[in-house]
Design goal:
It is a single chain. The chain is mostly beta strands. The chain has two domains: 324 residues, YVTN repeat-like/Quinoprotein amine dehydrogenase (Methylamine Dehydrogenase, Chain H), CATH 2.130.10.10; 79 residues, Sandwich (Immunoglobulin-like). The chain is 0% helix and 56% strand. It contains no helices and 41 strands.
Length: 421
């Protein structure tokens, strides 16, 4: 069975006066690892000490300070009963600090420090949480009102976790699931997950669990599902074509969201075979994850997180400071075939083509945010520069076919072929 139907490219195009994807002005280039909602306030957490709020659903953003020692990266921002939580991971020495704010991010307190490399924080409520580690199966667990974090051990990495209610929960290692029915007092061995690295999971019901993960033995992500509460799992591969027995493209997925047992989305990246460039991508299924439709955006990098706001709006985080407001009332539609050139901004031109030693660009007068990248046909970045000057020396490029991307800030606005003589 063909696991992916076809690929489309999305732009923030307008349909009936509404945009599918609208970029939020974060004013940062750091990787955005988490987005969360506190009622109508959007919270944004970046890799390098970046914490911001939007009080108008993404129209404007205000940055706030957060505690994070040197060499720390910030992850997994969550809101539970009005409290904010995130963890900061440190390298050399390896540590993780869990931070909590009782007053909406004005002040923060360190409620747990753990030694080692940690992969995720999941708070079910203010008295139940799990901090999972990357080595040895260690994890810290909060189970009571006394705020005592205890260390427990399972096998392998502790990659993701969720609770269905205040008793039933699931921990995902890098190949196995572990189940609890008593709030984490004890854990039972669950299903095998095909040697992949889980990124996130969603309880559809007590028995139906969906999860997304990196493939541990290759470049293609997996979508896994259980209909018995995690006792067993089955998987499909995102980008793998069973008819020909090989990957047709490479995928990485970091988050998922289903609005019904059959219909849902994955959020990550798409990379064509034999290339190195990744593009932020949304994957959609209408049959419970058996097949997936890939919708590429014109943003380089990958989507990292998704946050549901209401029946119409979600927010999606990504690399290079990217946060998008997603209008789900506008159907994800094709505006470009992958085999065609992009020319959404025809006023940006370069010549000559074929070229020998120089490229000359014709751009709008306001070109301070424009730049270009030249890739080999295999996807290797060969040359890049700003477009504040029209003439560029490409004499060091060897003869052959290249791809020229024109970018405005983070967004690709043109994609053309170049023949170098």
């Amino acid at each position: 069975m063909r696991k992916v139907l076809f690929c489309l490219i999305l732009f923030g195009i307008s349909l009936a006066g509404h945009s599918q994807l609208t970029e939020i002005p974060t004013q940062t280039s750091t990787r955005i690892n988490s987005v969360a909602m506190d009622d109508d306030t959007l919270l944004i957490l970046g890799h390098n000490d970046y914490f911001a709020k939007s009080f108008d659903i993404g129209e404007t953003v205000s940055e706030f300070s957060i505690p994070s020692p040197d060499n720390h990266a910030c992850y997994d921002l969550q809101v539970r009963s009005g409290y904010y939580y995130y963890y900061a991971g440190q390298a050399s020495p390896y540590q993780a600090h869990i931070w909590r704010s009782r007053n909406k991010g004005e002040d923060w307190e360190n409620i747990n420090t753990a030694e080692g490399v940690f992969l995720h924080l999941e708070m079910f409520d203010t008295t139940l949480g799990i901090l999972g580690s990357a080595g040895g199966g260690d994890f810290d667990i909060l189970q009571n009102w006394n705020e005592d974090w205890l260390t427990d051990t399972l096998s392998g990495q502790i990659c993701a976790s969720k609770y269905f209610n205040d008793s039933i929960g699931l921990i995902l290692g890098n190949s196995r699931a572990y189940l609890t029915y008593d709030r984490g007092e004890s854990w039972q061995l669950g299903g095998y997950i095909s040697w992949n690295v889980p990124r996130n999971l969603q309880y559809i019901s007590k028995d139906t669990i969906y999860l997304t993960s990196w493939k541990g033995q290759g470049p293609t992500s997996q979508f896994s599902y259980s209909f018995d509460g995690g006792v067993s799992f089955s998987s499909t591969y995102i980008g793998y074509d069973a008819n020909i027995g090989q990957d047709v493209f490479f995928s990485s997925t970091n988050d998922l969201w289903f609005d019904s047992p059959s219909h849902g989305f994955l959020f990550g990246s798409y990379r064509a075979k034999y290339t190195q460039q990744e593009y932020c991508c949304i994957y959609e299924t209408s049959n419970g994850g058996q097949t997936w439709e890939a919708f590429m955006t014109n943003y380089e990098g990958e989507f990292t997180d998704h946050e549901y706001y209401n029946d119409s709006i979600s927010f999606i985080a990504g690399t290079d400071g990217l946060v998008l407001k997603w209008n789900r009332n506008v159907e994800l539609v094709s505006v470009l075939d992958l085999n065609e050139e992009v020319d959404s901004e025809p006023e940006v031109h370069f010549s000559p083509n074929p070229a020998q030693n120089k490229l000359i660009f014709k751009t709008p007068e306001s070109n301070e945010n424009l730049r270009f990248k030249i890739y080999s046909i295999s996807g290797q970045l060969m040359y890049e520069s700003n477009l504040n000057t029209p003439e560029h020396d490409i004499s060091e490029l060897g003869p052959g076919l290249y791809i020229v991307n024109i970018l405005e800030e983070k967004k690709i606005v043109s994609n053309s072929k170049l023949i170098k003589q």
